[in-house]
């Protein structure tokens, strides 16, 4: 048997040699020493080497050692260094048993389980390094032990303090921390148990680094998440959830997320910061919950991270004396997971019926995952605002501590002050039993923070004693979103089925679709024809109006009006001539109109001539009348003279005979004029008759062309026109 020493050395201040690490006895191996020149190692590399050491150990243990001891012996004993003078060992029963036996498999249902507690001692930060702070904590991954360094205890005569937890880590590797400390809790949640993960520790101890690792994510660079070396627990949990869903063959899931913060004892919705008056409620079914709280249904990890980033943008952060970007509020990122068996459609009796009520369906499992980043406890700070925030933070953390103590003290249902702070009230479900809980406690390595770190470790040891008994939450609940969506899908499927029962029905549907298309096409054509008709009607109306303006006698005649109507609507209804094309029809109408127009013009002319001659006739008649009066008076005068004894007879005088001749001539002229007027009247009458005949013949030829025209109406109209004795000239 030979001794294999793997010794990791690093010098954080580049001055002194610090730790001697894990030493194993590994048979048949001759590695004596792996020494690292201190000046070439930076802090980051230290963790790499530290992890490498673990990897080497694991490899050796698998390859060479049939049985590596589960817990390596204490460092001092192997190095044969004297044991510390005295030791306070926080190894509660549960804690010890838990650290030595693996946590129960997550698929065990309703088993009593201790809260899983993980410790992370972060590396010294720049300030601590610059100050040259001594690192006081030593961590043994295998022993799952964190304790004060022996050197330090000896030098400063301090009591040796050591704690044992489920997992202890140093460095920055969040992946291994997640794998060992959190993964089971997340997977339990996917199986229907409530789960809660929270980070606890003093300000600047690395809670946010372990939960979010915001320094590597910021809102605009979610994409970088995949390449980030230290994704926090929350993004890893999100990945774990979706990995689980991908792997799970038999279930389907629905996820919704919400994100809230407790700032100065006020609950705020980080996804909907404008929402006011968020309250904590409690009912038997849901336990303690916050409302109204915005919930977003999510279907990809990216979507979840986007929501987280959105919420982070609204979170209260501030610069403290210890942390440039300190979380000034507790945040709770909540994911509700609904799941149901993949082929579990609503039972037969509950199937959708179009007329029936909507019924409950298959059982849905509903679990809630809380991922919590607590604000850090802190000592007095210089800023007034920070001091107020700090007071609220410290008070709520104190209450959390008290609640945990009470839970571990009696476990018997005595009064536990959950209601003393919003934080403990919201965590009530998780802490009081029905949840699997992982707590990550973070501490600073520096001696400056020794007291705070010890408090954190004491808190961690108390939490470790809390026993929970989670059970799966199956609900037959229409309110479960998954169930609602399922029912809706069922309804839609049923509707689809009812319209698509058999092939015949399919064909029928096809036919009716074709018919519908044909109908639509026909309607389209009708519409087009209608448009042409309307255009023609408008044109006719327009022309008719022009005729009305130019020839009032045509428009004034009822027969003409009827004829005009018949031209447009020969059936009394608006009917298209099926034999004549629209263009032919239009042309005929135009020809007729122009023919009628020219006839009307002739009539107008004749009428004007007639009235002119009538006027001449009238004037001649007046002249004749005057002449006759003169003759009469002349005759009377002649007769009077002769009677009076003058004995004169003018009838034989030349003046009298001239006058008589003139009168006769004028009378002849009048007679001639009268004859002429009569002949003009005859011509007008004839023209009117011709005009009338032209109208009739036009209508009749149109009538002949309408083969499918209904009998009666049109002919009646023609008869009406024929019989109508309207007021024609003459
Ligand atoms: N394990 C780690 N490895 C490397 N750097 C770390 C680690 N933990 C914390 N840090 C760094 O330390 C600083 C403080 O960490 P963080 O903000 O996570 O502390 P916190 O406990 O959340 O503080 P607060 O309560 O004030 O919000 C950050 O710059 C962070 O990057």
What this model shows, in words?
The protein is of the alpha+beta class and 730 residues long. The protein has three domains: 1-68, no CATH class; 69-343 and 363-484, 3-Layer(aba) Sandwich (Kinesin), CATH 3.40.850.10; 551-723. It is built from 21 helices and 22 strands. The termini are far apart. The site of adenosine-5'-triphosphate has 20 residues, from helix 8 and strand 17.
Report strand %. 15-25%
- Termini distance? 150 Å
Residue ranges: pLDDT <50 for 5 or more in a row?
Answer: 1-108, 214-227, 347-360, 547-580, 640-648, 707-730
| Whole-number mean pLDDT | 68
CATH fold assignment of the largest domain: Kinesin
Determine and state the CATH class of the largest domain. Answer: Alpha Beta
Give the ligands present: adenosine-5'-triphosphate
Quantity of strands, as a count: 22
CATH architecture of the largest domain: 3-Layer(aba) Sandwich
Helix content: 40-55%
The biggest beta sheet reads: 10 strands, mixed
Broad shape: rod-shaped
Short structural summary:
The chain is of the alpha+beta class. The chain has 3 domains: 1-68, no CATH class; 69-343 and 363-484, Kinesin motor domain (Kinesin); 551-723. Helix content is 48%, strand content 15%.
């Amino acid at each position: 048997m030979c001794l294999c020493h793997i010794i990791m050395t690093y010098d954080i201040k580049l001055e002194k040699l610090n730790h001697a690490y894990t030493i194993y006895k590994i048979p048949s191996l001759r590695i004596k020493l792996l020494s690292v020149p201190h000046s070439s190692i930076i802090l980051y590399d230290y963790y790499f080497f530290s992890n490498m050491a673990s990897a080497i150990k694991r490899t050796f243990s698998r390859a060479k050692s049939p049985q590596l001891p589960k817990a390596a012996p204490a460092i001092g004993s192997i190095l044969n260094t004297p044991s510390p003078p005295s030791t306070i060992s926080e190894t509660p029963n549960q804690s010890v048993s838990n650290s030595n036996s693996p946590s129960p498999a997550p698929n065990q249902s309703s088993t009593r389980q201790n809260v899983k507690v993980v410790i992370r001692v972060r590396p010294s930060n720049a300030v601590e390094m610059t100050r040259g702070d001594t690192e006081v904590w030593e961590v043994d991954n295998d022993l799952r032990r964190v304790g004060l360094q022996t050197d330090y205890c000896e030098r400063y005569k301090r009591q040796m303090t050591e704690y044992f937890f489920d997992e202890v880590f140093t460095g920055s590797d969040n992946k291994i921390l997640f794998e060992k400390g959190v993964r089971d809790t997340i997977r339990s949640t996917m199986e229907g148990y409530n789960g809660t993960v929270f980070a606890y520790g003093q300000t600047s101890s690395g809670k946010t680094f372990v939960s979010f690792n915001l320094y590597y994510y910021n809102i605009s660079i979610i994409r970088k998440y995949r390449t980030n070396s230290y994704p926090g627990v929350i993004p890893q949990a999100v990945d774990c959830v979706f990995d689980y869903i991908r792997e799970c063959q038999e279930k389907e899931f629905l996820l919704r997320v919400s994100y809230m913060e407790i700032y100065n004892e006020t609950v705020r919705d980080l996804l909907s910061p404008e929402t006011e008056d968020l309250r904590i409620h409690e009912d038997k079914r849901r336990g303690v919950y916050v409302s109204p709280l915005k919930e977003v249904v999510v279907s990809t990890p990216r979507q979840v991270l986007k929501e987280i980033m959105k919420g982070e943008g609204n979170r209260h952060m501030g610069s403290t004396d210890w942390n440039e970007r300190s979380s000034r509020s507790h945040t709770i990122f909540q994911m509700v997971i609904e799941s149901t068996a993949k082929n579990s459609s609503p039972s037969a009796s509950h199937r959708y019926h179009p007329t029936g009520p909507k019924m409950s369906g298959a059982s849905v499992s509903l679990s809630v995952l809380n991922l919590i980043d607590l604000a850090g406890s802190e000592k007095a700070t210089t800023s007034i605002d920070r001091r107020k925030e700090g007071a609220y933070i410290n008070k709520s953390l104190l209450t959390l501590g008290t609640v945990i103590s009470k839970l571990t003290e009696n476990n018997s249902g005595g009064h536990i002050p959950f209601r003393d702070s919003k934080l403990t009230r919201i965590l009530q479900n998780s802490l009081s039993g029905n949840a699997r809980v992982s707590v990550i406690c973070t501490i600073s390595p520096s001696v400056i923070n020794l007291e705070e770190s010890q408090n954190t470790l004491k808190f961690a040891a108390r939490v470790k004693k809390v026993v929970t008994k989670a059970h799966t939450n199956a609900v037959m609940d229409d309110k479960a979103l998954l169930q609602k969506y399922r029912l809706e899908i069922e309804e839609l499927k049923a509707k689809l089925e009812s319209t698509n029962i058999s092939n015949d029905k399919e064909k029928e549907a096809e036919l009716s679709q074709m018919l519908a298309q044909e109908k639509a096409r026909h309607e389209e054509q009708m519409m087009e024809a209608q448009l042409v008709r309307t255009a023609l009607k408008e044109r006719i109306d327009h022309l008719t109006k022009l005729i009305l303006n130019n020839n009032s006698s045509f428009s004034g005649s009822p027969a003409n009006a009827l004829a005009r109507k018949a031209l447009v609507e020969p059936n009394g209804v608006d009917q298209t001539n099926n034999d004549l094309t629209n263009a032919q029809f239009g042309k005929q109408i135009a020809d007729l109109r122009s023919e009628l127009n020219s006839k009307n013009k002739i009539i107008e002319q004749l009428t004007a001539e007639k009235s002119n001659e009538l006027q001449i006739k009238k004037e001649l008649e007046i002249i004749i009348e005057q002449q006759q009066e003169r003759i009469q008076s002349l005759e009377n005068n002649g007769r009077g003279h002769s009677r009076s004894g003058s004995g004169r007879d003018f009838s034989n005088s030349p003046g009298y005979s001239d006058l008589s001749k003139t009168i006769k001539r004028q009378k002849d002229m009048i007679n001639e004029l009268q004859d002429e007027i009569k002949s003009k009247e005859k011509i007008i009458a004839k023209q009117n008759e011709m005009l009338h005949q032209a109208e009739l013949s036009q209508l009749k030829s149109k009538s002949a062309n309408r083969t499918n025209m209904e009998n009666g109406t049109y002919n009646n109209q023609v008869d009406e026109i024929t019989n109508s004795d309207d007021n024609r000239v003459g």
